[in-house]
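D,D-heptose 1,7-bisphosphate phosphatase, Micromonospora palomenae. Tokens?
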Amino acid sequence: MMFTPRGSGNPPPVRRDQMEPDQRRSGRVDPAVDRAVIRPVLFDAVLLDRDGTLVEDVPYNGDPEKVRPMPGARAALDRLRAAGLRLGVVTNQSGLAKGMFTAAQMRAVHARIEALLGPFDTWQVCPHDDGDGCSCRKPAPGLVHRAAAALGTTPARCVLVGDIGRDMTAALAAGATGLLVPTPVTRPEEVAAAPHVARDLPAAIEEILRRQAALRPSAPRRSGTVLVVRSDSAGDVLVTGPAVRAVAAGADRVVLLHGPRGRHAAALLPGVDELVEWPLPWIDGDPAPVDPDDIRRLTDRLAGVRADEAVVFTSFHQSPLPLALLLRMAGVPRVSAISDDYPGALLDVRHRVPDGLPEPERALSLAAAAGFPLPAADDPALRVRTDGLPPAPARVGRPGYVVLHPGSAVPTRACPPELAARIVRVLTAAGHRVAVTGGPDETELTARVAGDTGVDLGGWTGLADLAAVLADAGALVVGNTGPAHLAAALGVPVVSLFAPTVPFGQWGPYRVPAVRLGDAAAPCRDTRATRCPVPGHPCLSTVEPDHVLAAVRLLGVPADAPPPGAAPATVGIDPVIAGGGSAR
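Tokens:
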């Protein structure tokens, strides 16, 4: 199964099933590892835009005397250097293509910047203009890939700090973390769409170091049987996967308590030895009335696990305390959880986290606080077991197709059917093979969306079947729903039609190349609504199929099935994707 067909300037395809033996306990979950030497690494390099981020934006500057550092830049960069993070600059310099300054003048400017701000480990410059069609000019991800390679790392371990939408798009398309520091030229829609925002460069560096430190435990420990809990949807279980692997690295046995909606995702997680399924009425979105007999049976089942401790993972709006009480009644001697509410004697480790952390990092920070860091050899990406996946249907053909998943259990996050059908037509007209996926209750939807040109895979059951289809995909086009996290776990790039009812920085595709589309400032923003509160679904209805085609191309997915006698359509980087700001 070949993952992520890449375009020009991007790294070669990676097969995640060859990166580790996907046994029931992950090949990277090694109880024998020396935990005294574990040093969790979230980031090991910070990439910075030049003009407007490091120094004042002087258009087409070839004069070292005009270099003016941004306030607090030197001290902030020195903090990164002291923390052992490598630094790189990724900058568009179209003035070279326009003849506004020479390469020698640009090098003199860079020498002046280093004299004022200290040395950088790599400078990556795009000398092209917008119309040159290169793979390096931001918002294309080429500079990020080149900088990561020069620093001996991967984009997923990099943060890109910039001041306009092009910087954020380049970061996400490479699989890096984007952190926006707005300036007067930053458009409001760019601020709304950014995954993370800081008020200035020192605040951005503080955020990077805070996130890095959150995964570093004060005292790594070993344990016997650990009960880990994530009783929620499939996507919630998948984003908790890195934290489960962290616990498994320090435990002899891991038992996962999950709910009915997370059943199929739980079965795919590495590092788990036993599954316990139980609906929790204080977690489920549509719960049945509390049944005292059911609660007594659950308490008995928890006691039967004979856990030495429990780590209760929840989303930011959920409370771990009802289950913590049952765990105490079941005799579990040590319980760890995130809780803003006073827990009394219910928790041994009461962990708190700031708002805005990506959900995988939120869970990892709890695991670290409980004494279970992720081993340094294990990247904190999402991951699933692939050893037991069924074969993909033969009718999808060879690897490299695009998957479109139009449905969602939460209506606000689904792609409007009419838009989804138009996306299929535009992608196939441009030479992409498109498979349309959906569950057994979505066959009418997938048939309508696939039309005469897409491959209709509606009706497949189980997350493992969908994983088998995604495993050979070049990209997934999907809303903010579980399949987006499944694609991330398989290393498959995501075109994210993201309804802003929840923050993108918390719930967007994690550490995988992605492009965000949709109106991030729509009235439904941050409402957590499950049904669209605004007529017409404006957050996604503004997306055009050509935007999706441009996003697929930005992610480096080649069109491999041009219609007979027809040339593929040409679509540049759309302004909605590219972002604005200075024409550097």
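The CA atoms of residues 139 and 170 lie 4 Å apart.
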